[in-house]
Write a structure and sequence with these properties.
single chain; alpha/beta; Rossmann fold; seven-stranded parallel sheet; 9 helices; 9 strands; 35% helix; globular
Length: 270
């Protein structure tokens, strides 16, 4: 069987590097990034500059779109340039080159406003004694509730994907990714405990998205590991994508402010 050609935008970031390592055996992986990489299958380009990315989209079957200003509270100018105009350019380049599937790295921040509301605020802040039994999890039917311009840009990407699916026949799968941690150890804060997506589960749900049937033209899915303390439901991903998470962050927080500051620091992944 011929391997699919996959382009990963923002391929030198944390998630891009994980996916490149995990998927490289089964797919022909190329990366697009502002940063010049030693990888022979890499392209240098800025997603906010349409002409600079054209070459990288040729002969690709799937695009995994990660490139973004991923600061949860990034300023509007940067979010507009990198996350909104950049995402538009990615979809346009895919359309121009006949690519039929885009996997968009959306985010829990598209609905991060729920972190302010009990009982999810109590889970998020580690007040577990206040969390009622059998509390409702946020699912994909709940309203968009961004907690910053970054979250707004991810909601925009989901809407843009719906348009390109309906009018340009591009299957778009949107993964509302939780927290992918560089050393894959999530117990340093209550936030990471509830939002963790392990490296293994990240690779699995991405692979499931790549291999989803052509009949899946559009979908939005929460993507976390099967953590004990949850805010978001992953039932839809399990049912439609066949996602079977293997990891669980557990119940115990060790607290590590230095690591929290490092993992949550500002970073531009493109």
């Amino acid at each position: 069987m011929t391997k699919k050609n996959i382009l990963i935008t923002g391929g030198t970031g944390i998630i891009g590097n994980i996916l490149k390592q995990e998927l490289n055996k089964d797919y022909n992986i190329s990366i697009l990034d502002k940063i010049d990489s030693s990888d022979p299958n890499s392209f240098v380009g800025d997603i906010s500059d349409f002409n600079s990315i054209q070459e990288s989209f040729k002969n690709q079957d799937v695009v995994i779109h990660l490139a973004a200003d991923r600061r949860s509270h990034g300023e509007w100018g940067s979010v507009m340039k990198n996350n909104i105009e950049g995402t538009y350019n990615v979809f346009e380049a895919a359309k121009k080159n006949g690519i039929k599937r885009i996997i968009f790295a959306s985010s829990n921040h598209a609905t991060g406003g729920f972190y302010l509301v009990p009982p999810w605020s109590d889970v998020f802040n580690g007040n577990f004694d206040k969390v009622p039994p059998n509390y409702k999890l946020i699912n994909e039917k709940d309203r968009i509730k961004p907690d910053g311009y970054y979250g707004v840009s991810k909601a925009f990407g989901e809407a843009l994907g719906s348009y390109y699916s309906d009018f340009h026949n591009i299957s778009s799968i949107h993964l509302r990714i939780g927290w992918v941690i560089s050393d894959d150890e999530p117990t340093f804060s209550s936030e990471s405990l509830s939002l963790w997506l392990s490296h293994k589960d990240l690779a699995q749900i991405t692979r499931k998205s790549v291999e989803a049937p052509e009949s899946l033209k559009y979908g939005v899915f929460y993507a976390t590991s099967d953590n004990y303390w949850k805010i978001f439901s992953i039932k839809k991903a399990k049912k439609i994508l066949g996602y079977k998470p293997s990891d669980n962050s557990g119940k115990v927080i060790t607290y590590n402010k230095e690591k929290f500051d490092k993992e949550g620091s500002s970073e531009l992944d493109n």
